[in-house]
Amino acid sequence: MMFVRSLGDGAELRPLEPWQAEEFFAHMERGREFIGQHIAFADAAKDLDSARNLLQRYADKAAADAGRIFGIWLEDKLVGGVLFREMDAAQGRAEVGCWLEPSATGKGLITRAAKVLVNWAIRERGMHRVEWLVSSKNAPSIAVARRLGMTRDGVLRSYFVYRGVRQDLEVWSVLAPEWEG
User: Fold this and answer.
1) H or E element that contains 58
2) End-to-end CA, the chain
3) 4 Cβ neighbours under 8 A, 6+ residues apart
4) Which one, of 47, 56, 64, 135, lies nearest residue 97 by Cα?
5) How confident is the model over 77-134, as pLDDT tens digits?
6) d(CA 138, CA 32)
7) Residues linked to residue 62 through DSSP beta bridges, in sequence order
8) Phi and psi for 136 in degrees, rounded to 5?
């Protein structure tokens, strides 16, 4: 199902699908160093095949109602995206994530796009809890969680290894009654 959602200022939110792998890979190439500071997509989409496979994994998740991925286009150029990394309809829980190439930072694109996803998850899908999991070192992403009105639930200390370095994982969330309020 194709749709386009305006984010204002010449930006659009659209589904990101396997047939767009070349555009996605070119975007990753432009932003690889910046995105890769915190987001594993930069390492996962290392060539066209792996970029296509990543998008296919999300197409499969969408078909199973277990996740979805959307691109953010600015003036018709793919510059980033937001996703439901995981969705569990039975538990009423979804995890939202994001990434952005450097040329598109500081414009509020991620906050606006993530708000669309949270709205949809809570209002359309009836999710009770939307989560935002983020490395404690990723200050811009933490700022988005705050702007979305999320609450920091806690920190999982030394939770995961990223590029050989142990990282703390912050858990942020918003509950349906808080979002609707």
Assistant:
1) helix 48-63
2) 31
3) 12, 13, 14
4) 135
5) 999 999 999 999 999 999 999 999 999 999 999 999 999 999 999 999 999 999 999 9
6) 16
7) none
8) -60, -20
CB atoms within 10 A of CB 24: 24
Rounded-to-integer distance, Cα 142 and Cα 146, Å: 6
CA separation for the pair 32, 181 (Å, rounded) = 38
d(CA 25, CA 16): 12
Residue 139's CB is within 10 A of a number of other CB atoms, namely: 10
Prediction pTM value: 0.95
CA 30, 73, 109, 10 torsion-angle sign: positive
Strands 129-135 and 93-100: parallel
Helix axes 139-147, 109-119, angle to 10 degrees: 50
In angstroms, the Cα distances linking 6 to 21, 130, 152, 154 are 22, 22, 29, 33
